Amino acid sequence: MELVYSETRDRQEAAELPDRELALRARGGDSVAFEALVTRKTPAVVSVARRIVGDGEDARDVAQLVFLRVWEQLARYDEKFSFNTWLYRITTNLSIDFLRSTRSREKAHGATLHLVRLREEMTGAQTTHALESGELARLFEMVSSRLTGKQKAVFVLKEMEDCDTKEIARILSCGESTVRNHLFNARRILRRELARICPGLLERRRS
Amino acid sequence: MSVRCARARARDRVEDYLEGTLPAADVRDFREHLASCDDCRDCVVSREPSLLFTRVGRDEVSAEDVARVLAGVRTGIALREAERKLGRSRSGGRRRIAAIASAAAVAAMTLLLPGTGRLPARSAATAVAPPVETAAPGFAPAARGSSRTFPADATIYDWNPGAGVEEPRVVWIVDRSLDI
After folding, report:
1. Which of B158, B75, B64, B163 is nearest to B114 (CA)?
2. How far apart (Å, rounded) are the C-alpha atoms in residues B98 and B176?
3. B151 by DSSP, 3-state: which?
4. A55: which DSSP letter?
5. Residue A65 is inside which H or E element, if any?
6. Which SS3 state, helix, strand or coil, does residue A160 take?
7. B38 touches chain A (CB under 8 A)
8. What's the confidence (pLDDT) of residue B132?
């Protein structure tokens, strides 16, 4: 008997295709290509969303919305541009919207209740070497709660996702000078918050 | 390049990096060096404390998390497809509400199950399945081997698990011939 259709084979083939090709196939109605794209890009989308919204569960919710939006707007995807740029644009926009929502603000207020304990933990750390990545991530959640959505998105894309200024400008649909302004302000606020939350840590580092 | 040279280069580049004037290729080198050299990282962070957070790596996103996101996306797409189709149909408001309510119930069930599944096809031509007469192999045991005919305008959405995954299969049928 001849095998005329195999979804497993389609999935294997799709997993080897570049993002842009998958996006074009998905736009043509290929659900296997779309699923391959979702599977491949979920870690990056969740990671960026998590840094901006500050909560893993919320980040997964945002990721679902992101891929739904991708599905709905695939017809608008311009293949002349990187798929990642388009995907990050949707991710940052939805994450910023989420951050603005009442629910998110309530969570942020709840999070500040843990500030005292966190401050004690961080002051106890002798150097930045002693801070594990997980602790740093929690510290970032705390200090970055003072940033606006745009400032946070710029800082995350620049310092954590290694995007350059030009790409960030494309992602956020703004000028490069605006990106630099957001970055400058984000650093200033983070510096101030770090000094407030764990002054001992920075003083030890300077000595 | 010696370690000392790499450190000297990294320290020379701090200002350019902070100003955003360092070329992209050099930024990559600079950041790679910071990731591996505690001394340089301390030096840089003492100049700009916020760069402490460049060490925050990507979250570990487990295969289970990816499957959950995918399942949620499938459900969301199925709901939107159903809403779109039902919105087009000539059926009355009551029927539409009932169908969407049943879709929502199935969607909720799907989200509760740790399932992965299959998207309803995107194009209208394939999204509306032809009449299905038998339950597919691998469906719930109660339905296996049974034979049932659905009306021609029934739409069948099928979440079937991947090969070898012990997860339930959920089939959701929107039957427009019912006037609930």
Report:
1. B64
2. 10
3. coil
4. -
5. helix A56-73
6. helix
7. yes
8. 39
Residue B155's φ and ψ, nearest 5 degrees, are -110, 130
How many beta carbons lie within 10 A of that of residue B176, not counting itself? 18
| ipTM computed for the complex | 0.75
Give this prediction's pTM: 0.65
Residue position matching structure tokens 């001849």: A2
Contact assessment for residue A27 and residue A74, using Cβ atoms and an 8 Å cutoff: yes
Q: Exposure of B21 by Cβ count < 10 A (0-12 exposed, 13-18 middle, 19+ buried)?
A: exposed
Cβ contact B138:B171 at 8 Å: no
A202–B56 C-beta distance less than 8 A? no
Residue B169 in contact with residue B143, Cβ under 8 Å? no
CA distance B56 to chain A (A): 5
Interface touch B73/A64, C-beta < 8 Å = yes
Which of B 73-102 lie inside 8 A of A, CB atoms? 73, 76-77, 80
**Which tokens sit at A100?**
């603005």
Which of A43, A67, A187 is facing B48, going by the closest CB pair?
Answer: A187
Task: Tell me how crowded residue A164 is: count the other CB atoms within 10 A of its CB.
Answer: 17
Q: How many percent of chain A have pLDDT more than 90? A: 38
Shortest CA distance to B107 belongs to which of B167, B153, B172? B172
Longest CA pairwise span in chain A (Å)? 76
Per-residue pLDDT of A110-133, as tens digits, reads: 555 455 455 555 555 545 555 666
Q: Which two tokens stand for residue B20?
A: 């955003």
For residues B132 and B134, what is the distance between their CA atoms, to the nearest angstrom?
A: 6
Least Cα distance to A144 among A162, A159, A127 occurs for A159
- Using an 8 Å Cβ cutoff, are A139 and A131 in contact? yes
Surface-to-core class of residue B162, CB atoms within 10 Å of its CB (0-12 exposed, 13-18 middle, 19+ buried): middle
